[in-house]
User: What shape does this take?
Amino acid sequence: MNIENLMKKTYGEKILLADANKMIKEFIDLNAITVKSVKQDGGQGINIEPSRRTRAVELNGNRCNAFIFSKDLIMRFFDGGEEDEFGNPRSANFLMVILGAHTEDVVRDGQEFKAGSFTVLTAGCERRVVKVNDEDRVGFYALNIPEAANEYPPHQVVLQLEPKEGLLPDGFFLVAE
Assistant: This one.
């Protein structure tokens, strides 16, 4: 794909609610298998240092699959209200969602997160053409602003995106506790 086509390419697409619900269920089912596998031997079959093994077990033991961000936290990347270190307004073209892991035990909004527990970050970014080894490449770059990313909480367990009998009254998700 040439640079012009890459710059026009859209990222992400609309999908049907039924397809989204199938994907959510598949994640939950596969994650349960992974968690069971890791917990059975604690990752002993993998040659890693003990502290990293502990964090890997923590990461795989988390059943949360949804992370709620307020509109204000997301829109700040797009409304031109954020400024770089020189006071220039910055605005993103894209939102990047990144899976990460805590590097140490932390408390955020009264919740405790152990080292190795996963976290989700969002960052507003711009798509740019850059030279890499004399070749034009398309890359995505976080906005050059002091607080360039958001981190959840709260985390949730989402079972589906449509109301179903047996779920909480609002019908959309159960809160992980």
User: Anything to note?
Assistant: The chain has four helices and ten strands. Residues 20 and 60 are 22 Å apart (CA to CA).
